[in-house]
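agent> fetching stored inputs for the NAP docking request
agent> found them:
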Amino acid sequence: MKKRILAYGRLSEAQLAQLANEFEIQQFHGLTSANDPAFRAALAKAHGLIGSSVAIPAELLDEAPHLEAIASISVGFDNYPVEALTQHGILLCNTPDVLTETTADTGFALIMATARRVVELADFVRRGDWQKSIGPEHFGSDVHGKTLGLVGFGRIGAAVARRGALGFGMQVRYAMASPKPVLEEELGAERRTLDELLAESDFVCVTIPLSDTTHHLIGADELTRMKSSAILINIARGPVVDETALIEALEEGRIRAAGLDVYNHEPLSQDSPLPHMSNVVALPHIGSATHETRNAMAQRAVDNLILALSGNRPISLVNEEVWESRRGA
Ligand code: NAP
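agent> prediction call returned; pasting tokens
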């Protein structure tokens, strides 16, 4: 008998056909919460899940006695109770690498857009306000040659740094990561404490995963340490930055601008001041959102799930210990 899987992410026809070859699939189009009664009921017989952007609370695992693997269509895994999954012996797979360059492109787009005021000034033209040559009140600041500070210096952080150092002659600093001698050699990157990095950088780019230890890592104190001319970019997860403190810092001109792809609550409410501030470029969580990359992520998740449910090691695994204990068993 085929194993049963629940699919709640965007998968192509070919990917669904590939899964249907192996499994019995139940699809949940537009699922926004794991508390959806039909989804909860289906968990009782599910061996695998494939999807993204839906938080899976630890309590639900008790209702999923046959669950063997979850294939998330994302690299970040803050939506999953990793410890509980590991205790239940459930493999958690993610999609690193295939989205690194695309997400770094988004980060760099935010760096350029905020520094050169691209969105604000494009709106100025669209409104018909461009009636005479622009003056200093519309000038931006340079990106090339400036100091770029990466908070977290993993795959995506390094890819942003590579763009900055090799494309724009930027000085790269990094914090909140183990020493990276190869990248130091390649990019001239220098490791700093977080406080040093915040004080030195013209652009502070947050690429660190969200976890209990990184929640509100960038708060009021950290924002105060930044230069008043500096720009904060967040392409990691919203709650790594204290959004209330960020809004205050932007309103009071304690930092120049922010380029944001992620927020405390998504979709971002129109009641938030952020989308209305001229010194904020707010994107709708598009870090990896290109046709090519979303397709590659979905394919990686499909491959991970097929491998996991057929007793093979998935390509990308978050809780390696589950695989190790299965092999040892
Ligand atoms: P990664 O390769 O694992 O890099 C994470 C970096 O953060 C590493 O340098 C790591 O240090 C450092 N770090 C410091 N404290 C950490 C902690 N408590 N837990 C984990 N890492 C810690 O991850 P990545 O592929 O670059 O992705 C980073 C994050 O970007 C993801 O977790 C995700 O949330 C976010 N993301 C967002 C989008 C978007 O759409 N905006 C798209 C993709 C990813 P070491 O170097 O010492 O390991």
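agent> quick read of the result: Residues 75-76, 96, 99-100, 103, 152-157, 176-178, 207-211, 213-214, 235-237, 261-262, 285, 287-288 surround NAP (CB under 6 Å).
agent> awaiting further instructions
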